[in-house]
Amino acid sequence: MRILLAEDEHALGEWLSKALEQSGFRVDWRDDGRLVEQALDKGDYDALVLDIGLPGRDGREVLSRLRARQDPLPVIMLTARDSLAERVSSLHAGADDFLHKPFALAELEARLTALIRRARGSARPRLSCGPLHFEGAQRQFLLGDEVLALSPREHRLLLALIARSGEPMSRQQLLDRVFSDDDPVQSAALDVLMHRLRRRLEGRGVCIHTYRGLGYALEPRPPGDA
Ligand code: CA
Fold first, then answer.
1. 150 φ, ψ (degrees, to nearest 5)
2. Ligand 1 centre from 57 Cα, in Å?
3. pLDDT tens track for 29-85
4. 146-150: long-range contacts at Cβ-Cβ below 8 A with a sequence spacing of 24 or more?
5. How far is the CA of 8 from the centre of ligand 1 (A)?
6. For residue 155, what are the CA distances in angstroms to 32, 66, 69, 78, 110?
7. What is the distance in A from the centroid of ligand 1 to the CA of 51?
8. Cα dihedral sign, 173-67-37-113
9. Backbone angles phi, psi at 48, to 5 degrees
10. Which residues sit opposite 77 in a β-bridge?
11. 184-189: which pairs have CB atoms within 8 A and are 24 or more residues apart?
12. CB-proximal residues (5 Å) to ion ligand 1
């Protein structure tokens, strides 16, 4: 899952990006409201973590402009503790959730996963596809009863696919969610990861289907269907 993080406190921004990346999110971090808007124009994100007090453009203004464009991107606002006024104005601006600073990383992760899940609609109460489930609290995949041991990149790829299961995702969308910008030879590496994941899932009731010209989709596969 690909997250845009808007935070101008550099120590917090650096720590959060690193910690979220370790948990399997792909994070782009910006420290200025105008840079956040540029990233939103170009990028394709699954959620935005937005600090209220930002230089360049205030977090609330970024949010209002996003909602004025009818963009439904899930947004978590970071607010000062005990500031009712900040929470109310963020709600009016269209925030989906809040977190008071300081907060625990586990809470941010749980809320991000819940928001992204909710954004997929109530028909999908969990991140699931056939017998494959993502357990948000433990940050692990279960295939039936078995915990899948995955490399960090395999984990990010499978998370990207299950977050939009049933819809094809383009190679670029997947590359953006699995690799950081400075990783070389990404495209070939994606094929290797895809091959490995397919072997892990083979014959287990879920598959990664290739749609020519569109990309890849995670789909349930009936038992016995090779
Ligand atoms: Ca700030």
1. -125, 150
2. 11
3. 999 999 999 999 988 899 999 999 999 999 999 999 999 888 889 999 998 766 778
4. 148/200, 150/200
5. 5
6. 30, 30, 33, 27, 17
7. 6
8. negative
9. -120, 130
10. 50, 98
11. 189/153
12. 8, 51, 53
